[in-house]
Amino acid sequence: MLSATIAAHPAAAAAITLRQRHSLRPRQPLRVPIGAAAPRRRMETARPSVVKAVASQGVPAVPPKLSFPILVNSCTGKMGKAVAEAAVSAGLQLVPVSFSATEVPDGKLKICDREIRIHDPSESEKILPSIMEEYPDLIVVDYTVPDAVNANAELYCKLGLPVVMGTTGGNRQLLHKTVQDANIYAVISPQMGKQVVAFLAAMEIMAGQFPDAFSGYKLEVMESHQATKLDVSGTAKAVISCFQKLGVSFDMDEVKLVRDPEEQVNVVGVPEEHLEGHAFHMYHLTSPDGTVSFEFQHNVCGRSIYAEGTVDAAMFLYTKIQSGAGKKLYDMIDVLREGNMR
Ligand SMILES: NC(=O)c1ccc[n+]([C@@H]2O[C@H](COP(=O)([O-])OP(=O)(O)OC[C@H]3O[C@@H](n4cnc5c(N)ncnc54)[C@H](O)[C@@H]3O)[C@@H](O)[C@H]2O)c1
Ligand SMILES: O=C(O)C1=N[C@H](C(=O)O)CCC1
């Protein structure tokens, strides 16, 4: 579930600002939160020639279903498990191997009736080459931990393994350089939820077209996530960098991190059933003289928005690999621009 509110009118914003001053509870979203996604059709691709040939016979073209092998690293994580399930339901071949720093009974994990063999990360360099031989079109999806981002990226690059990197944190500049220098196909994004990416893209466009438009404005940022999330949201960092391009001075350590479940329910307004998996973000801007304020929120419950976006990113990357695209390093805005959303 995703809800977003944007208030720009001074009076409305002033009212919100007052309300917000006393609590972080987001206002009722301006629109009913996006409900559970409708059952998804698998994204289909079609070679234009096939489609044209079939259509010319007057028979509606049914493009071939897209299916390829995907290894989720790590299936033992909350996000990895959600992606593995979304991949299976989208018809992708889930490779029955994963790596994890978390011990699992008998070294096996059941996902969608499939038995996934779990190995220690130290074995990945030894095991992955044989997996790549068995699954030549393999794409790996990485949802591990910030401390593993750069080492994992280096390994995938060393093996020439295409990757969808969803894990946040680590040294992002080094991550992009490693992947760029290795010339492997990759989608890298701290945010895989398509609608949040669309908001981020709008922010990037605004920042690109109107640099310093908000210079002198004061920015307050609050982000609330499950208590197990240790790092500052990568999405929040990306949005903040847009505000910085718009002329706002803000230090990343000024972000108000809310990880206390009681505050999340009573102040932020997180539904109790989503305490273990949510992302509520609020960005509040106030003019130097205090007469104008803006507020942006994006509030996500659960992980399906990210899991579905990750599957779209993997399908996007697969089509780029198959077509031998010259550009190899992508982000989620590239995936959205391609438009082939399920
Ligand atoms: N891009 C997005 O849209 C998006 C969405 C959700 C989460 N995330 C990010 O994904 C990451 C994981 O989030 P989560 O909620 O699944 O965390 P989690 O702690 O539930 O899962 C992380 C898993 O990685 C495993 N792990 C640790 N080190 C590893 C290594 N070296 N190799 C393989 N596995 C290893 C752990 O055992 C754990 O099972 C975080 O960085 C989070 O910010 C990104
Ligand atoms: O649950 C998480 O962890 C999330 N991480 C990403 C971030 O750090 O912005 C995306 C939102 C959820």
From TrEMBL:
Annotated ranges, domain Dihydrodipicolinate reductase C-terminal: 196-336
Location (main, coarse): plastid
Domain of life from the UniProt record: Eukaryota
Database matches in CDD domains: DHDPR_N
GO molecular function, one term: NADPH binding
Any GO BP annotation: diaminopimelate biosynthetic process
Reactions catalysed according to its record: (S)-2,3,4,5-tetrahydrodipicolinate + NAD(+) + H2O = (2S,4S)-4-hydroxy-2,3,4,5-tetrahydrodipicolinate + NADH + H(+); (S)-2,3,4,5-tetrahydrodipicolinate + NADP(+) + H2O = (2S,4S)-4-hydroxy-2,3,4,5-tetrahydrodipicolinate + NADPH + H(+)
Cross-referenced InterPro entries: DapB_C, DapB_N, DHDPR_bac, Dihydrodipicolinate_Rdtase_pln, NAD(P)-bd_dom_sf
Keywords recorded for this protein, A-Z: Amino-acid biosynthesis, Chloroplast, Diaminopimelate biosynthesis, Lysine biosynthesis, NAD, NADP, Oxidoreductase, Plastid, Transit peptide
Location within or outside the cell: Plastid, Chloroplast
Pathway annotation from the record: Amino-acid biosynthesis; L-lysine biosynthesis via DAP pathway; (S)-tetrahydrodipicolinate from L-aspartate: step 4/4
E.C. no: 1.17.1.8
A GO cellular-component term linked to this record: chloroplast stroma
Domain Dihydrodipicolinate reductase N-terminal: 70-192
Range of residues in the leader sequence: none
Gene3D superfamilies (UniProt xref): Dihydrodipicolinate Reductase, domain 2, NAD(P)-binding Rossmann-like Domain
PANTHER family: 4-HYDROXY-TETRAHYDRODIPICOLINATE REDUCTASE 1, CHLOROPLASTIC-RELATED, DIHYDRODIPICOLINATE REDUCTASE
Function: Catalyzes the conversion of 4-hydroxy-tetrahydrodipicolinate (HTPA) to tetrahydrodipicolinate.
Sequence similarity: Belongs to the DapB family.
Protein name according to UniProt: 4-hydroxy-tetrahydrodipicolinate reductase
